[in-house]
Design goal:
Blueprint (H helix, E strand, L loop, with lengths): L4 E7 L23 H13 L4 E5 L13 H5 L13 H6 L5 E7 L5 H15 L3 E6 L4 H6 L8 H21 L6 E4 L4 E3 L7 E4 L4 E4 L12 E4 L4 H10 L2 E4 L4 H17 L8 E6 L1 E4 L2 H12 L4 H12 L21 H10 L5 H7 L9 E4 H15 L3 E5 L5 H16 L12 H5 L19
Parallel strand pairs: 1-2, 1-14, 2-3, 3-4, 4-9, 9-10, 10-11, 11-14, 12-13
Antiparallel strand pairs: 5-6, 7-8
Helix pairs in contact: 4-6, 7-8, 8-13, 13-14
């Protein structure tokens, strides 16, 4: 059986996926704005042989519920929110192998500046950086960035295609591998003949410039993506090395995995060069009974109103516009299309009360609850039945949730040969794809720019 990758799924904020857990007396998420919080987490995850820490991010606030950000602000629903990139160097300084996948938005980040920041992080971490490519989904972000509204859902991916066409040139083509000479005697640090500008003149952007950074260990960071719509999957088939999907059901995820690997092959890439990770929430303890008790304890702190504010924005649906039992008909949404589709499939008779009744631990993920053995069995079933390559574990009470995973579940996965007991040498790309190289595989479209 293949070895899987475990990622902690976190955000530089108080409330991430499971809303309300910050109120729990053992939770420390309100210390998100201290370096010690992040360096301690990084050490813990590396001791537990996690592949990495996946840092989510969002621009804008959740202001769809009731047409106001009040619920999000009251319940700390991904606000306040600090920049995820700024904590990575500190975590890299106290670890040797842990990877860091960080989210950045192609709709609002200037590609020339983002290329420099990610190259800088790749240098400082010794090649342990991944980029989670997102196109955004909040109109509040568009307004904050000086736009009337965000572009249509599929158009945002068209912009992202051009964005990556330019940023690939910066990373892969602007500097030749042998451009840096460091010739002290001749007073030549870099050979200008081996450095060229990147250029694009497309529908959405026109720009040119020499990349400001010399080639980093990976050049292009490991490329993550989480779009599950049909347009998002086409984007992933072209660009992504790692795809994050929601845990709907094992048969549904298995079909998504097959479709993704087929699309990757049709794009001329190698299906083995794509890994698919599924999101999971775990509550575990020494025994099943203790885990159930812990889950019930956590539930007492869950914020249903906070969860509704989070869901309203990601679905593009104001639940407050409906009575509790009013049927919610067709909704035209420019938010996360796959989330709305999944919500309707889970509850065909779609009502606000029915949606709230399905919330668990202040979120929409159904938690896996049990002893280490029970949780390991469930994770293994996902691997064998859905063909996923690993998991992104959303936090509940932190750092307790990751500590209990490492104490109760990881040793069992390691005994079964599912989880690494050490790290492969090299960059994040080499750790995730041990048979590969530090840089993009030859079949990836960006790699052709190096020729």
């Amino acid at each position: 059986m293949k070895q899987i990758d475990l990622f902690a799924f976190d955000m530089n904020c108080v409330g991430h996926i499971q809303q309300g857990m910050w109120r729990h007396p053992r939770d420390r998420s309100d210390r998100y704005n201290t370096l010690e919080h992040w360096t301690s987490l990084a050490r813990l995850l590396e001791d537990g042989r996690f592949a990495g820490l996946f840092l989510a991010d969002v621009l804008g606030v959740y202001d769809v519920l009731g047409g106001s950000p009040a619920a999000a602000l009251s319940h700390a629903v991904q606000v306040p929110l600090n920049d995820p990139m700024l904590v990575i160097p500190a975590m890299a300084a106290v670890t040797k192998d842990l990877g860091f996948a960080v989210t950045a938005n192609t709709s609002y980040e200037a590609p020339y500046l983002l290329a420099r920041r990610l190259s800088t992080l790749d240098h400082l971490t010794g090649g342990r950086i991944g980029w989670n490519v997102v196109t955004g989904y909040l109109d509040s972000a568009a307004r904050a960035m000086g736009q009337d509204a965000q572009r249509a859902h599929d158009d945002r991916y068209d912009v992202a295609d051009e964005y990556l066409a330019f940023i690939y040139q910066l990373w892969e083509q602007s500097w030749a591998d042998d451009a840096v000479l460091k010739d002290r005697a001749q007073d030549v640090f870099a050979d200008p003949a081996k450095i060229r500008p990147a250029r694009i003149a497309g529908k959405y952007m026109s720009m040119q410039g020499v990349h400001l950074c010399e080639p980093s260990p990976q050049r292009t960071p490991v490329l993550f993506q989480a779009g599950a719509s049909s347009r998002g999957q086409r984007f992933a088939a072209t660009h992504a090395e790692c795809v994050f999907v929601n845990a709907t059901s094992r048969p549904a995820v298995a079909e998504t995995v097959r479709n993704l690997r087929r699309a990757v092959a049709e794009a001329g890439r190698v299906p083995a060069h794509l890994k698919v990770y599924v999101g999971a929430t775990v509550v575990t303890a020494a025994t099943d009974a203790e885990a159930r008790d812990r889950r019930e304890e956590y539930e007492r702190y869950a914020s249903k109103r906070g969860a509704l504010a989070h869901a309203a924005a990601s679905l593009g649906l104001d639940f407050d516009a409906y009575g509790p039992d009013d049927p919610i008909g067709a909704v035209t949404s420019n938010a996360i299309r796959s989330n709305l589709d999944a919500a309707r499939k889970a509850q065909p008779a779609f009502t606000t009360r029915g949606f709230i009744d399905r919330l668990q631990l202040g979120g929409r993920q159904t938690p896996i609850v049990g002893s280490g053995e029970t949780v390991a069995n469930e994770l293994e079933a996902w691997v064998t039945e859905a063909d996923v390559d690993g998991f992104l574990f959303a936090r509940t009470v932190t750092p307790e949730c990751f500590e209990s995973l490492i104490e109760n579940v990881v040793p069992i996965l390691q005994r079964r040969g599912l989880q690494r007991t050490g790290y492969a040498p090299g960059t994040l790309r080499q750790k995730l794809f041990p048979a590969g190289t530090a840089r993009l595989p030859s079949a990836h479209p960006a790699r052709a720019l190096r020729a």
